[in-house]
Amino acid sequence: MSFQTLEFLLFFPAVFLLHWSLPHRFRWPLLLLASWLFYFWWAPWAGLLLVGTTLVSWLCALGVHGQRGRVRRFCLLTALAVPLGCLALFKYAGFFASIAGAQLSLRLILPVGISFYTFQTLSYVLDVYRGKTEPERHFGYYALFVSFFPQLVAGPIERPEHLLPQLRRERRFSVRDLSSGGWLLLTGYFKKLVVADLLAPLVDRVYAGPGAALGPQIAAATVLFGIQIYCDFSGYTDIARGAAKLLGIDLMENFHAPYSARTIRDFWRRWHISLTSWFTDYVYIPLGGSRRGTARRCLNIMAVFLLSGLWHGADWTFVLWGGVHGLYQIGGILYERCCPARLPDGRWTAALQRLRTFALVTFAWVFFRAETVADALTLLSRLGTGWTTLPALLGAAAPALLPPLLMLVCLSRLDRLPPGTQGRDAARDMTVFSCLLAIGLGWWISLASSGTNAFIYFQF
């Protein structure tokens, strides 16, 4: 079941009405059953894997907290090995077999969301092991923490200290939550259906034939892909946060205007925030962080970004994408050490820094989007071709590019008018009306062609 399907549009209102009509003690069973139904809808066997992983991590966390010595270490290793083993089997078995020169006779289907809920269970067990959080002794609440349906399949990757208390706390219906949640749903569907799904064919056309694409087409398609993946993923996050908010639960913010970042480091503070913080807390800092000299710091950064690339997909394209971002980070550190003097701050300096960061991020998207490393290298090698035909290409592409550009203007309005903004009611009402109209048109266009596209991050 996906957010843009008719099934979800029937499923969620039913859950919403039942949730607020039931007493508090019956709400967690309702949400747990709804979450499992939401996930089992895709594939029952994947649902059994989710429940099994949940049970193992819950029992092992209790053992980690209550035992000492070898038993405690055994519980910790089991809690890490089982979910990571399942992730490795379903997601990386073919990749590592190809590296070893072997070929798997059995093709495994990747369970939706396994990368996300695996990291969520790992953070819980590790936090219990470190004494940062108390183990949850109620299996029902813990199972709901792992499988809460708004954020189950594509995040945000929640932490136990943030989500578990909210699931336990008695929640009261709030008109403010209704307004905020509805606004987030609106912006999320707008980003996904109106912007991301309309940009997808323009991007796919170029990346499907890398050998025939010209430089201006490659540059435009890659810029549009950067916008597409942002609207697709942040749109999912907005829908997830909005649905949770309507149920009285706050999920963490996962994006904060990433393309306005002035440095690559700043970009990663704004993009997929829950994943960045996860790798920082559970990989980068345990490796030593920045405490052991510049060389070790650079190695730690590269290790984190290579793992981040591998987390996104079992392919060398994702590993290279992560490696490129690791090189960006290392280059920034070395530049700061060699050239400590900073440019004078100002509007033009900030604009140039944002443009530079956007260009670097966009360059790396080539590896992320390309089907193979060979395709990525072909696209990069052809970037210098065809620029003399730019005026003709712009004229031919104008009808296709005009709707996305108009959508981006609307999107910028959405970003500037968050819920509860004082003194902007009239402007916000106009924006809401415009977005509702745009969503209707976008949905009609999508259904009139080949149906809506799945969220990009579902494959991870």
UniProtKB/TrEMBL annotation:
The keyword RNA-binding does not apply. Its main location: membrane. GO terms for biological process: alginic acid biosynthetic process. Keywords: Acyltransferase, Cell membrane, Membrane, Transferase, Transmembrane, Transmembrane helix. InterPro entries: Ac/AlaTfrase_AlgI/DltB, AlgI, MB_O-acyltransferase, MBOAT_fam. It holds the Pfam family MBOAT. It is found in: Cell membrane. GO terms for cellular component: plasma membrane. GO terms for molecular function: acyltransferase activity. The chain crosses the membrane at residues 39-62, 74-102, 108-129, 294-312, 392-411, 432-458. The keyword Transcription does not apply. It is a multi-pass membrane protein. Belongs to the membrane-bound acyltransferase family. This is MBOAT family protein.
